[in-house]
Structures are given as structure tokens and as C-alpha cells.
Amino acid sequence: MIGRIVQSVDFERVLAAPTRARSTHFAVHFLAARPAVKVAAVRAAAHKLSTGEAPQQGKAVDDLPEGACWLGAVVPKRHARRAVTRNLLKRQIRRVVHAQAGLPSGLWVIRLRSPFDRKLFPSAASDALRTAAGTELLAVMARAARTGA
Asked: Model pTM?
């Protein structure tokens, strides 16, 4: 099971950890931890709820099964100017991580660390860019899964 990292505090924690694997365009960071619990949401819920039934909005972080992974993708605008390209890269990141078997449980962040050459990939969402990014991501994730496991 792979969840999403949504809180900035989780991104900061993972990015503070050393890089687990690196390629020409991507860096993979890993932290063997669970996402932080939103303190404000817990406090607000405590004030609104009585001893009656509480509304359910999915599973709590503590209720997730062992071996769960959380993924965050960082694709900065300075490296991928067009939204189409950023979305393509994020989709490729999610696809590769979902296909990766045997990832250690914890927080994973994959970030774009350098832009793809616009002369080689003039189209914002070309099949060539999709293939190149996918191939590179497969290699870097395979290395990250092997390293430090």
C-alpha cells in the first residue's frame, strides 16, 4: 500500500535525510518513519466531538498496515517550466514506485534535481520524455530499494 505525503513537515523530515540514490535528473530520499499526525485536526476534533459517534474520514495513520509506504514527488517549476511536463513527471514517479516491489516501509520522496534538455525534448509531454524519465526512474528506484535495506 502506498499513500501520499501531504504535509510540509513530512517533506522537510525526509529531505533532511541523506540521499538514498541519485541519477542525472532525480534524487531519492527515504526515512523509515510514519507521517506526522495533524495536531490541529486532532485538537479541533476533540472539541467538536462528544461521547457519541465520531465521523469517519478514512483510516488513521496508526491503523495502516505494516509495510505501508508514503510517497512525495517534488518537481520544481525551475526545472520543469510547463505544467504539462511537471504532471507527466509526477505520473511517471507514481507509476514507477507503484511497480517497485519490496520497498521498505516509510516515507519516500523523489525530487527532480536537474531539468531535461529542451533541445532533446522540445514537446512538453512527448513520448520520448515519458520513456526517458520512466527508464531513469526505474533505474534509480531499483538502486534505492537495494541500498541500505
From this structure: 0.79
What SS3 state is found at 106? strand
Cα separation, 6 vs 75, in Å, equals 14
Per DSSP, the residues of 41-56 read: HHHHHHHH--SSPPPP
The string of pLDDT tens digits covering residues 3-40 is 999 999 999 999 999 999 999 999 999 999 999 886 55
Count other C-beta atoms under 10 Å from residue 136's C-beta. Answer: 17
Among 69-73, 111-115, 121-125, 132-136, the least confident range: 121-125
Find the angle CA(84)-CA(88)-CA(94) to the nearest 5 degrees. Answer: 145
Q: How far is CA 69 from CA 51, 89, 108, 117, in A?
A: 33, 20, 7, 32
